[in-house]
Amino acid sequence: MFNQHYKRPTLRAVSSATLAMMFLASCGGGSSGTDATTDAAATTLASNAISESKKASKQVVVASPTTDTTTTTTTTPTTTDTTTTTTTTPTTTTTPTTTTAPTTTDTTTTTTAPTTTTTTSPTTTTTTSPTTSTTAPATTALAPYGQTATAYTLTFSDEFENGFNGGVWNDHIWYEGSNATKNYTVENGALKIWPQRDASGQFFNRTIDTDGKYYQTYGYFEIEAKLPIGKGTWPAFWLFNHIGDRRPEIDIMEAYAGGGPNSGWSDANLHPTAYAPTIWLDASRLGGTKTIQTPDLSAAFHKYALKWEPNKMTFYFDGKEVYSANVSMGDPMYIMLDLWYGSASGQPDNTTPTGKTNSYEVNYVRAWKFK
Question: Dihedral angle at the C-alpha atoms of 124, 125, 126, 128, nearest 10 degrees?
Fold first, then answer.
């Protein structure tokens, strides 16, 4: 996205103002990026707090820990030894009639004592203890969509349940200040960025990123989002870094609603019907790109994702692989979400819907590392 002016001119045209800004950015630079992955930025792992309404809209299956509520009723055999072992001592008399004494009939009753019932000891019921439950652990709740959960470890998650986290996110790109006009918020479990004119009457770019706060090299990166409509709108989800004069960049999703039906990017109502993943090895070194035709991306939430391996990048749309490239990029990068204007979307004008109802709306941002 930052390197957009090097893309195909028929689809990636930019305004002169944008070119001037990017030229100054590449020359002036900013603080150098970090060469080591920084997982220090504590993120809000709020998977256990996702509201029921948000679960439905996000379509994220959260596997809550299963509590074995089965009550094991152990009936302890009550062994009441009611047997009276009667040992009748033979009565020895001096009379000859002792041979007719029924003393032997009493001693035979001792063999009926239920001493064998002790084998039904209740200690054998301990095998039904709830501790033997084999239900799935809670760590599978935030797995990459469509991926094998056991192959990943969650490293970053913002579910946008507790407001805007300034400890994780910046609200402007490194070479600009923050525009005082508020065109973003976190509410109802989502980050929203919308088209808006500032005090000067001009539309302005808004960037939300983790520059200086969170970086990662390799892994899986995913958002769930709904895109804005209208002339000029250019939402994106990407990874980036500014390292000296170098500008490595991985655009996971860029859309251009303002292009119109002849551009291949949107329909006649300027609703986005395509997006592109793009790889920039550096500012002028294109590593690959592909335009992905889709349904109306402003009508519903969709998942956009990247699996970044040392020698390969694979891009996903709603869990389905849509593009891959055998490229190697080893720099740590930070996460960027933004709503800019221009390129193949043209410039915004009076027809561009403004305000919160036309937001680039993000339900969550997540990242995992490979195990």
Answer: 140
